[in-house]
Amino acid sequence: MEIREEIKQYPYPAVACIDALKIVQNHRGWVSDESIKDIAQVLGLSNEEVDSVATFYSRIYRKPVGRNVILICDSVSCMILGFESLYGYLSKKLGISWGETTSDGQFTLLPISCLGDCDNAPAMMINADHFNRLTVEKIDELLDRYK
Amino acid sequence: MERPLTKHIKPGFTAYNLEEYKQVGGYNALLKALKNMSPGDITTLIKTSNLLGRGGAGFPTGVKWSLVPMDVDRSRPKYLVCNADEMEPGTFKDRYLLEGNPHQLIEGMIISAYAIQAEKAYIFLRWAYKKAEAGLRKAIDEAYKAGYLGKNIMGSGFNLDLYVHSSAGRYICGEETALLNSLEGKRAIPRTKPPFPAISGLFGRPTVVNNVETLSWISHIVENGADWFKGLSLTATGGTKLFGVSGRVKNPGTWELPLGITIRELLEEHAGGMSSGYKFRGALPGGASTDFLIEDHLDVKMDFSTVAAAGSRLGTGTMIILDDKTCPVSFIHNVEKFFALESCGWCTPCREGLPWVEKMLLSIEDGTGKMEYLDLLSFNAKYFGPGNTFCAHAPGAAEPLQSGLKYFHDDFVKHITDKKCHWR
Q: Which residue of chain A comes nearest to B271, CA vs CA?
């Protein structure tokens, strides 16, 4: 198993906790209570210890997400360049607000802090892909591409 | 004007591969360091150059290294960590170096690891920087194959393994001790200092944590010397710096320029001035956790000591511009909301105070704020200050708040008395 491979490079198994959570999420899309228990067993930690790590990090999902996760930068440079109206557009078009998933399970909408692309604001990510200088037209095109 | 850090970054951000990097003198500094210099020589050189950390705090890099115990047997293993968790709102400089020239960073890290005699090094990389991650992994692979990483590097007997750790989110991971907890697989809560990481860091071993831009300098200083480095800046500090401007300006971007250029030059010559129809009202000179500067400060020189003397911090050197069509209360609310969400929750002023501040700002923005909130906001800003909290997170949040209350006081009052925001 991948997690056991990961453990080998560290002085003790618990170090691989974040890696293990990411591995599970890569396969399943999110981290369920069952997965928390499994990880705890492999790493020799309590369920609560693993959950305390899982709930700390914003890119570990403890609830199911859609097939595509849209992460919109809501930090200050993107705010100045109008992220709020883009969020409004996306939210209306998909019929969901922050943290929600479309009923067909295609898209989840989440905020993310500054993506370090402020000179090309507004910016967002869809899954692991980065997009900038967003406009309503560009968003329409992206939604079609990821559907 | 020399631009050592970005000279070899091609337009469009396609990084040099190993061959191209070597053709422009890449890895010559590593050879020089390993063959002709002792670890102590390198630390002394970096100390003499007065290289100040480029992550935001400006701590002298050579001094940080010199705290690491060099007793051969008892101090091992030791670690070098590159802080590439760039997440300060309005900051987009490390991404440029990571994507643009990964070999420059890797070469700098090998020399730095040799200077402190670390045998393992980590790049703690922000989760969202996927292009940088792919580029780094490819460059590390090339460096291993060429014998620049691994066992007995260039026949010197020095061994180093370099790993990329992609993070799982959270701004607090950029705080160096929180970063170490995160690398250990734990919640990213800052640690008590002392002991400093140089004595007890990753896995309780001596560890140096340096920023991407800082480590990218090392090969250049080894190759060209301390005097050359000092001569690059217009002020006494030494070196160039990556500066950036974002907001409603004609040409937002990042540029490598000498430390000591004025805010006016940066804004007008490089960023092309304000976009048409927008007026300058203020700027956070070095990311979200720095104090506002206003029109009176346009001739302030961008260097650590000069920006500090003007009442702010150079921080990351990437400036966010507040224009006249953006509500200053919304601007500050956005920044404080970020800090409230990103608080790790460990100490009370930060965990409880930041959400309180955020709620008061939101109600002022919405036109339901009360006049007494202004005193409460100042009270909180004061108690977020250094010494009252566990780490620098809440003091950072206090900076745009306290200076915003001072410079945009009339706008706050107008929101409260008119019970509405005139920008909406």
A: A119
Residue range B203-208: mean pLDDT, rounded: 96
Whether A65 contacts chain B with CB within 8 A:
no
- Say how many residues make up chain B: 424
**Residue A93 to chain B, least CA–CA distance (Å):** 23
Residue B266, domain member (yes or no): yes
pLDDT in tens, B383-402: 998 889 999 999 999 999 99
Residue range(s) defining the domain that contains residue B122: 18-230
Distance, in Å, from the CA atom of B225 to the CA atom of B222, rounded to the nearest integer, reads: 6
Segment A70-117, tens digit of pLDDT:
999 999 999 999 999 999 999 999 999 999 999 999 999 999 999 999
B346 found inside a domain: yes
Q: Which of B230, B250, B272 is the last residue of a domain?
A: B230
**Contacts of residue B318 in chain A, CB cutoff 8 Å?**
118
Please tell me if residue A25 touches chain B, with a CB cutoff of 8 Å.
no
Domain ranges of chain A: 2-56, 68-146
CATH H superfamily, domain A68-146: Glutaredoxin (3.40.30.10)
The half-sphere exposure of B220 on its side-chain side, counting CA atoms within 13 A, is: 25
Same domain, B334 and B318: no
* Nearest-CA distance B404 → chain A (Å): 14
Q: For the domain that residue B142 is a member of, what is the CATH number?
A: 3.40.50.11540
Contacts of A75 in chain B (CB under 8 A): 89-90, 288, 334, 338
Residue B332's SS3 state is helix
Q: How far is A100 from chain B (nearest CA, A)?
A: 19
User: Residues B194, B290: one domain?
Assistant: no
d(CA B37, CA B115): 9
Interface of B with A in 64-93 (CB under 8 A): 86-92
Q: What average pLDDT does the segment A50-59 reach?
A: 97
On whether residue B8 sits in a domain, the answer given is no
Rounded to whole angstroms, the Cα distance separating A108 from B339 reads 24
Read off the tokens for B208. Answer: 């140096």
Considering the segment(s) A2-56 as one domain, its CATH architecture is Orthogonal Bundle (1.10)
- Letter for the amino acid at B155? G
Regarding whether B89 and B212 lie in a shared domain, the answer is: yes
* ipTM for the predicted complex: 0.95
Using a CB-CB distance cutoff of 8 angstroms, which residues of chain B are in contact with residue A118?
90-92, 244, 246, 252, 318, 320
C-alpha span between A74 and A115 (Å, rounded): 9
